[in-house]
Design a protein that fits this description.
Layout (H helix, E strand, L loop, with lengths): L1 H35 L6 H23 L5 E7 L4 E5 L3 E2 L5 E5 L6 H5 L8 E10 L2 E9 L15 H8 L15 H7 L6 E6 L5 H15 L1 H7 L1 E5 L2 H7 L2 H4 L6 E4 L15 H8 L3 H10 L9 E5 L2 E5 L1 H13 L4 H29 L5 H10 L1 H10 L5 H10 L1 H7 L5 H7 L12 H11 L6 H32 L8 H7 L9 H7 L7 E4 L7 H10 L5 E5 L13 H9 L3 E6 L1 E2 L4 H13 L8 E2 L8 E4 L5 H15 L5 E4 L5 H12 L3 E3 L8 E4 L1 H4 L4 E7 L1 H6 L6 H7 L2 E9 L10
Parallel strand pairs: 2-4, 7-13, 7-14, 8-9, 8-12, 12-13, 15-16, 17-22, 18-20, 18-21, 19-20, 21-22
Antiparallel strand pairs: 1-2, 1-5, 3-4, 5-6, 10-11
The protein binds adenosine-5'-triphosphate (ATP).
Adenosine-5'-triphosphate binds next to helix 4 and helix 6.
InterPro entries: DNA_helicase_UvrD/REP, P-loop_NTPase, UvrD-like_ATP-bd
Organism: Arthrobacter silviterrae
Keywords: ATP-binding, Coiled coil, Helicase, Hydrolase, Nucleotide-binding
């Protein structure tokens, strides 16, 4: 019986792959054809072909990315229909549906049906593929009249197989085994802000990624041109998750870590937690406003200016009035400067004219010529710049943190000690908490080159021309696209976006990444508990419609500027307008380890979400107590045992930041290139990390060096140690020379 069913599924899935190959061949053929004829014809023809080429390329990339485990489920419905579920939708040439996209409404019951609420499903079948071959099938029989003698329920096999598999250093998708509570969140409505709170390993990251893919699929019209932004804690984390969305058939999501949210800035330097906390405070917004106002200065007294040998006087009163008028425009600093300069130039020109007339040159003086003289005067230029200098965000922020007198003037609410903490050399590299300050500054300063507006206007005009072209081409294209299997209706906007002149042809995602003022249609934030108020302020600016999916775990907060409750974190930006969902099952950490982590947190006085672990592990947490000074030696000694225990899997050593270099060096002396240092070393099977780098990642085995130091270093929070203890999927070992924090040992 089972063998016959398996054989059936194998042949069906072979058919699906045959169809995938056929579509791929078709796209390659069409792409070749478009490329061959690309340089011929009118501008409109050419741009139409460019648009086709981009669409074919995208579709081909999508078809290539979904090859692995293309299909993973089948539903047997009350109606007798058999419905296959997979990464994308597939149909025959005559539009007979072969497989439904997992995100389509018809696929929802695959994740939601239970024996109590069957939703018209008699049987749910998981297809477990290796490469292109069906290796096994597992059935949930929901309608018990279907049970044949001797047949048994095999509910959680696919899930447990996924959970027990060896880690690779890269996150995989969970599309075949999404659980009902996760599915509800993935498919919740687009608008508003949704907070997903969940303990470690509850699938928050997985849910965030699948939700981004779901939203783009379901609301393509609304989201494709504005885009979806996915924000994570670090570049290493972005690397860890980067393959998930393509494997789900989505390539259009813009991904950025918090250090890369401002185009042109890559913030990698690390600073003290105290400085980060100060810079994250919401009153830094006022400090930035003060810093800008501080650059709109009045001279100490009236000044004399030489214009072509004539002495003019610029009074403090005149400057003050021009400043008031410029500020009253409400424009950003660099743009308001135009008003300021224009007023004073006019007044000085007037003064010059009066002077010349009074000296007997008659009233023939040519005013435009005089205006040129005033504008050309070095004294005038220097004075106007001293009063209202055009500024870049970088210059404003670096001056503020490198000049004590400026900092004292713009941040009077900070104590001397606090200001001392913020001071640094002018050429110091940027840190993550500088990014929201730079963004705030850019917002307040506006375009540096005010003529940039003209270039922008020219680009806009070109785009409008493209749009008109696109509208003409579109009716015939939609038909052809449908024929060629590209889903969704194409809008003139989208087509125009593909139409940008060659060489400048950027996708929406690429353009969004280079444009600070881009407004996204939706933002997904992972590890959101770490964000400071200033980082929230930046993100809300990126999505003015406030459509957010916010995932995190308050108990895992380790950054000093992070949140201690969702209400407190979100109130300034969203008021009460957000809803909360909770994930309650831990898929990563085995029961024994998860319980030790919760006991440790509780003993330290912290209440944490304690999700129920879905499986027991083979091992209790192991503890080695060693003499002071023997920590690193012990790490090296146990490594053989650890790597053998997780045979072929990954082992992470999580150490206090100060101990990471020597631990990595000692391990490398024995294990050579197998040892990676810092996050992002996904190719090695032994990785040495500090707790911050370990955030969001997971490993088969974890060795924690000096747990008490992780607790002490976190400023009274359990975050660091709690994060470290909840990374393993199989095995945890703690090596301690100081007394072990309470609760770890039962
Ligand atoms: N439904 C599922 N099917 C298979 N695997 C799952 C499922 N849900 C979660 N997992 C797996 O559990 C592990 C933990 O998931 P994830 O990293 O998303 O959790 P998290 O809540 O973000 O954890 P943390 O807050 O600790 O970083 C991952 O390996 C993920 O693939």
């Amino acid at each position: 019986m089972y063998d016959a069913e398996l054989a059936n599924e194998r042949s069906y899935v072979e058919g699906l792959y045959a169809r995938l190959d056929e579509l791929r061949a078709e796209k390659i053929e069409q792409l070749g054809e478009v490329r061959r004829t690309k340089s011929m014809g009118t501008h409109q023809n050419r741009s139409e072909r460019d648009a086709f080429a981009s669409l074919y390329e995208n579709r081909l990339a999508q078809l290539n990315a979904v090859d692995d485990k293309l299909a993973f489920g089948r539903l047997d419905l009350d109606s007798g229909e058999l419905r296959y579920i997979g990464r994308i939708g597939l149909s025959t040439d005559d539009l007979r549906q072969l497989m439904v996209d997992w995100r389509a409404p018809e696929a929802g019951t695959f994740y939601q049906a239970t024996a109590f609420e069957r939703l018209g499903v008699r049987r749910r079948r998981h297809l477990i593929l290796q490469g292109r071959t069906v290796k096994s099938i597992e059935d949930d029989v929901l309608d018990h009249t279907m049970l044949v003698d001797g047949e048994h329920l095999q509910g959680e096999g696919a899930l447990l197989a996924a959970l027990n598999s060896k880690r690779t250093g890269r996150m995989s998708d969970i599309v075949g085994t999404i659980q009902a509570e996760q599915d509800r969140i993935i498919r919740s409505p687009l608008s508003g802000a949704l907070v997903v709170q969940g303990g470690p390993g509850t699938g928050k990251t997985a849910v965030a990624l699948h939700r981004a893919a779901y939203l783009l699929y379901t609301h393509r019209e609304r989201l494709q041109s504005a885009g979806v932004l996915l924000v994570g804690p670090s570049s290493a984390f972005m690397k860890y998750i980067e393959r998930v969305l393509p494997s789900l058939g989505e390539t259009g999501v813009v991904m950025a870590s918090v250090g890369h949210l401002l185009p042109g800035i890559s913030a990698t330097a690390v600073e003290s937690p105290e400085a980060a906390r100060l810079k994250g405070r919401i009153d830094m917004a006022q400090v930035m406003a003060n810093a800008v106002a501080n650059r709109q200065r009045l001279p100490r007294g009236d000044v004399r200016l030489d214009v072509e040998g004539t002495r003019l006087v610029l009074t403090v009163r005149q400057v003050r009035r021009a400043r008031e008028k410029a500020r009253a425009t409400g424009k950003p600093h660099n743009e308001a400067r135009v008003t300021f300069v224009k007023i004073l130039l006019r007044e000085l020109t007037e003064q010059l004219r009066e002077h010349i007339e009074a000296n007997g040159a008659g009233n023939t003086a040519d005013r435009s010529y005089l205006a040129d003289d005033v504008r050309g005067s070095r004294d005038v230029r220097v004075m106007l710049n001293l009063c209202w200098m055009p500024l870049s965000a970088q210059k404003l922020v670096s001056d503020m943190f490198s000049k004590p007198e400026i900092l004292a003037a713009v941040a009077p609410q900070f104590t001397d000690a606090e200001r001392a903490m913020l001071l640094r050399p002018a050429d110091a590299p940027w840190t993550e908490s500088d990014v929201p300050l730079l963004d705030e500054a850019a917002e307040l300063l506006g375009e540096m080159d005010v003529t940039g507006g003209r270039a922008e206007a020219a680009r806009e005009a070109q785009r409008n021309r493209d749009l008109a072209n696109a509208e003409k081409a579109i009716s015939n294209m939609n038909q052809q696209l449908e024929d060629s299997g590209v889903d969704g209706i194409l809008t003139a906007e989208q087509l125009a976006d593909f139409n940008i002149v060659e060489g400048e042809s950027l996708s929406n995602a690429e353009r969004a990444l280079t444009d600070r003022t881009w407004a996204y249609g939706h933002v997904v934030v992972d590890e959101a508990q770490e964000l400071s108020p200033m980082q929230w302020r930046l993100l809300v600016r990126r999505c003015p419609v406030k459509s957010f999916t916010i995932v995190g775990d308050i108990a895992q907060t380790s950054s000093a500027a992070g949140a201690s409750s969702w209400r407190q974190a979100l109130a300034p930006f969203m008021g009460e307008r957000w809803s909360l969902e909770e994930l309650t099952v831990n898929y990563r950490t085995p029961t024994q380890i998860a319980e030790a982590a919760v006991r440790m947190a509780n003993a330290a006085g912290q209440v944490v979400s304690a999700p129920k672990a879905v499986r027991d592990g083979e091992w209790e947490p192991l503890v080695d107590k060693v003499a002071p000074g023997a920590l690193v030696r012990r790490v090296v000694e146990v490594m053989e045992e650890e790597t053998t225990a997780v045979a072929g899997g990954l082992v992470a050593v999580i150490a206090p930041p100060a101990m990471v270099p020597e631990t990595a060096a000692a391990l490398r002396a024995v294990y050579g290139h197998r040892v990676g240092h810092g996050a992002g070393s996904v190719e090695q099977d032994i990785v040495v990390l500090d707790p911050h780098e370990a955030k969001g990642l997971e490993f088969d085995g974890v060795v924690i060096v000096e747990p008490a130091a992780l607790l002490a270093g976190a400023g009274g929070r359990v975050g660091d140690l709690y994060v470290a203890m909840t990374r393993p999927t199989q095995r945890l070992r703690l090596i301690a020379s100081q007394p072990l924090p309470e609760g770890i040992e039962a």
